[in-house]
């Protein structure tokens, strides 16, 4: 999963390339770049963050359940969850300010804080209703986006030409504003400002809230802890989720590849469909990895143990990706992002994940947690730490 998120994030560190308005992938690459970017749009982009949101919600239930099993009072568990989410917001802001404008830790923390305070202790029936409401609103947004795009085609030719020219002038400016800024202080201010806007906006877009609530429901059934008991359910979720996610992303991918000749001014017409099906795709991946864990069993081997070691330190290794990507690729660092395309960027993403494997093996040998996990745990427990 950390490999997929590395692939999803690395293109945001490129700069000096035209990107269009529907993704961060450069549009000036060769055939291999185009194929890789198209595959990423179908199977990775917009699917990985909902996947982590689903797992984040799943983890909230695991956290509360494990503390309750140790005799921790409900009030203490509630305080720990609140502290955990507040500190995730802080982690996210620092991450964005220092390195990466696309941080999602803050969005997870804010969603956990708001949704957790309102719905976390509700019944399964209530959560199912909430999830259907969120899904319905996302579907409504998809329909409205498509209808608005169709109406824009009815505008006079002069107006459409002006809109197209304005959008062409902004092509690539989104990544350039953050990764193409050679002054680190100005880049940090831009990243911080973007984070302050995008973090609550992500919550309002409802993809994260929907995935988190579905994660709660899945955790209450123990889908991932006991995959052998839910093999058929996980298989259905994996097959249909990934299939729906891929089909929903296909129009945007075809637009990017130039196969679907959609006018540039309405290139976002299928963005709503992409968003709502992205939740299905993300949860499908989580189910697939649950089945993979069942297949591997209790003797995973060296590589399997290393991959599991990354998972136990997912926060640290997520941040490590930015620690490598940002200085290496952005203009305020070594500036490599101006000189490579999608293929080179994905190769760097894979290399960072392999580095994470090596570090996970070393940390496992030393029986050490990840540094970010240690810090977050101390901040989360506070006065409620059972070791006190």
From TrEMBL:
UniProt keyword Transmembrane helix present: yes
Sorted UniProt keywords: Membrane, Transmembrane, Transmembrane helix
Pfam family, one: DUF418
Entry superkingdom: Bacteria
Domain DUF418: 218-382
Bilayer-crossing regions: 34-61, 81-98, 104-120, 132-155, 194-217, 237-260, 266-294, 315-334, 340-363
PANTHER family recorded: INNER MEMBRANE PROTEIN (PTHR30590:SF2)
Designated name of the protein: DUF418 domain-containing protein
Species in which this protein is naturally found: Brevibacterium yomogidense
């Amino acid at each position: 999963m950390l490999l997929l998120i590395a692939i999803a994030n690395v293109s945001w560190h490129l700069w000096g390339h035209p990107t269009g308005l529907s993704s961060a992938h450069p549009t000036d690459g060769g055939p291999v770049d185009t194929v890789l970017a198209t595959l990423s749009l179908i199977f990775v982009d917009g699917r990985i963050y909902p996947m982590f949101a689903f797992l984040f919600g799943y983890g909230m239930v695991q956290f509360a359940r494990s503390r309750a099993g140790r005799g921790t009072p409900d009030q203490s568990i509630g305080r720990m969850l609140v502290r955990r989410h507040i500190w995730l917001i802080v982690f996210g802001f620092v991450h964005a300010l220092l390195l990466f404008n696309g941080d999602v830790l803050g969005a997870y923390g804010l969603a956990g804080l708001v949704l957790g305070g309102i719905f976390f202790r509700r019944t399964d029936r209530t959560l199912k209703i909430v999830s259907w409401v969120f899904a319905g609103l996302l579907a409504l947004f998809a329909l409205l986006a498509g209808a608005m795009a169709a109406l824009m085609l009815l505008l006079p030719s002069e107006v459409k030409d002006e809109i197209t020219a304005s959008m062409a002038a902004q092509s690539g400016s989104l990544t350039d504003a953050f990764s193409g800024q050679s002054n680190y202080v100005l880049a940090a201010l831009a990243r911080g400002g973007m984070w302050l806007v995008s973090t609550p906006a992500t919550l309002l877009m409802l993809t994260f809230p929907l995935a988190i609530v579905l994660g709660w429901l899945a955790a209450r059934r123990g889908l991932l802890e006991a995959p052998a008991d839910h093999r058929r359910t996980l298989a259905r979720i994996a097959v249909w989720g990934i299939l729906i996610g891929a089909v929903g992303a296909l129009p945007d991918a075809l637009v990017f590849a130039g196969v679907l000749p959609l006018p540039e001014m309405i290139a976002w017409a299928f963005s709503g469909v992409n968003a709502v099906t992205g939740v299905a795709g993300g949860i499908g991946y989580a189910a697939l990895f649950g089945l993979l864990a069942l297949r591997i069993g209790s003797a995973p081997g060296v590589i399997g143990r290393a991959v599991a070691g990354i998972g136990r330190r997912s926060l640290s290794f997520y941040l490590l990706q930015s620690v490598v990507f940002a200085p290496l690729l952005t203009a305020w660092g070594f500036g490599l992002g101006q000189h490579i395309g999608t293929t080179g960027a994905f190769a760097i993403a894979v290399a960072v994940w392999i580095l994470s494997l090596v570090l996970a093996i070393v940390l496992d040998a030393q029986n050490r947690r990840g540094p970010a996990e240690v810090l977050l745990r101390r901040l989360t427990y506070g006065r409620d730490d059972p070791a006190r």
